[in-house]
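Researcher: Next sequence.
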Amino acid sequence: MRLLLAIVLVGMLGLGGLALQTRGFTIVTTESARRDDMARERPRMPDVVLQRSDGGSTTLWRELALDGRVAIVNFMYTRCQSVCLAMGSEYQQLQETLRRTGLDARVRLISISFDDADTPERLARYDATMRADPRIWRTAVIKDAGARHGLLDAFGIVVIPAPMGQFVHNAAYHVVNAEGRLIQILDIGDLDGLLRYVAQVGPHDNGAALASREATALGAVSQP
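Model: Next structure:
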């Protein structure tokens, strides 16, 4: 009997711990939690100074409000030998698709480096290697450590130093409107889904209006 009670107690403690870690079993991983929080809150990102690949400087808010286009933002560093390469390849494909379909009039790409070793010169070489069209795809780095950490925290990006000058970090595509509000996070590797989403978003859309439009459309489809 004591053994049975002990087994039941351990099981209940395990379920309780899992419930806490998954917020009542609604999410399973930290990345899922990040996306769940962002989708619900749609926070405005803090303004930070960006050093551009052309050597000039700007701020994040100024860059996002530059021409009213919706931005797809990713975080990377030029020495990355893993996930950043995949994102760079997908950004090349996105750039070509945006240009071919005319969506470049409404959507742009921004890559922000979190590596203090990245300089405008390194970013310029990266731009040349990736054939980045500055009208569609711009790169920048945040040199101030405090501002960099603050922006990464706001986006929910975790960066951990690794051997050989590398970093371990989570990766996704962040859709940000012209006011600097994060309205959606989408997976890398799903370019079709990303394009479908941004094709519907306006420059001042906070995400809630889009969700309402999608719900209305789904309701109309489901009507007999």
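Model: The CA atoms of residues 95 and 101 lie 10 Å apart. Helices lie at 2-21, 30-41, 60-64, 83-101, 120-130, 145-155, 191-200, 208-222.
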